[in-house]
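Worked Example 4.2. Consider the chain below.
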Amino acid sequence: MILPSQKHLFDIPGDITFLNCSNMSPMLNAARDAGIQALNRRCHPWTITVDDWFTPAEELRSLFAGIINCDKQNIAIIPSASYGIAVAAKNISLKTGEKIVVLNQQYPSNIYSWLELAKETSAEIITVYTKPGEAWTEAVLENINTNTGLVAVPNCHWTNGTLLDLKRVSEKVKSVNAKLVIDASQSAGAYPLDIQQIKPDFLITVGYKWLLGPYGLGYLYAGDEYCDNGKPIEHSWLPKKHSENFTGLVDYTDEYKSGARRFDAGEYPSFHNIAMAFVALAQIKQWGVGNIQETLQVLTDEIERNATAAGLKVPARCNRVGHMMGVEFSAEQALRLSKKLSVNNVFVSFRGNNMRIAPHLFNTLDDIEKLFDIVNTIL
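Applying the procedure from the previous section yields the following structure tokens:
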């Protein structure tokens, strides 16, 4: 279902054309208001009860689980993608000579932990490149074999929105008894993700991009095998069993709360972040991720049409997500275009050799027309 413009739910001035959700989304007015209310309450800590430390986070855990179709028991609340990737790295064992498969120019938060793991275990990093006209899925599948220990990839490439078919990748990974870690930061909330089909070992995402939440709060999915015996990267009191009994915190325990809660970050109840994230996820649930994707596909199809008419190179529709895409420019063109767009209050990102365009439900076809009116002046 194509959704009508939701610009009225955001604080975006009329002279601003914001096409940069892949960098950081604007926050919903309602989420901002919830954050302000939570901060005001934080000024009066005597009003914060024991229940406030745990119940809102559990409600948020349930909401995110619904968005990716899994049990809330498998969800941890984390501060960043790099934190989640570090958790995954601590819980994945590799043997000397096993291969870690990643993409060329993959986002660094999903690289650095694997470089360290490779050093510690004498595993080998395999960087996947695509041939002209080749999709990421085929290229990745060609690099998975019986020597593969881990595949750590995104759902779509952060520079241009080119897509990986995670179901096919997962099937190949499982067939060689390897592990699968997904960085969904550029897709969760805008592109349908189904844990029951993908079946990763871990899936990690930030919350401040397509999930419309605050900076400093993200989510981790851990497979069942890690929920009972997984090793956290820190040892906070909060994930421990019976931590809601503040009087009993002096009685130390080795037991964790059930599920992936053992991976919750210290201070995860951060009252203002949880409040804002809850409102954001509730709104995404109301819209429907499938409807968001279908609506944004209309805009990226228009971007493709304009770019192709101008002789510019873009990913084929069949090889990209519907909510973001890259248009290739030379370095000199990108510099000139960046300046012109900024002067005209049009906001996109430049990543690698791509102008990365990432609209949301507050954008319309008029925004795409304004963007390409400016693009055409530098060609």
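The longest strand covers residues 148-154. The chain is about 35% helix and 15% strand. Compare this with Example 4.1 before moving on.
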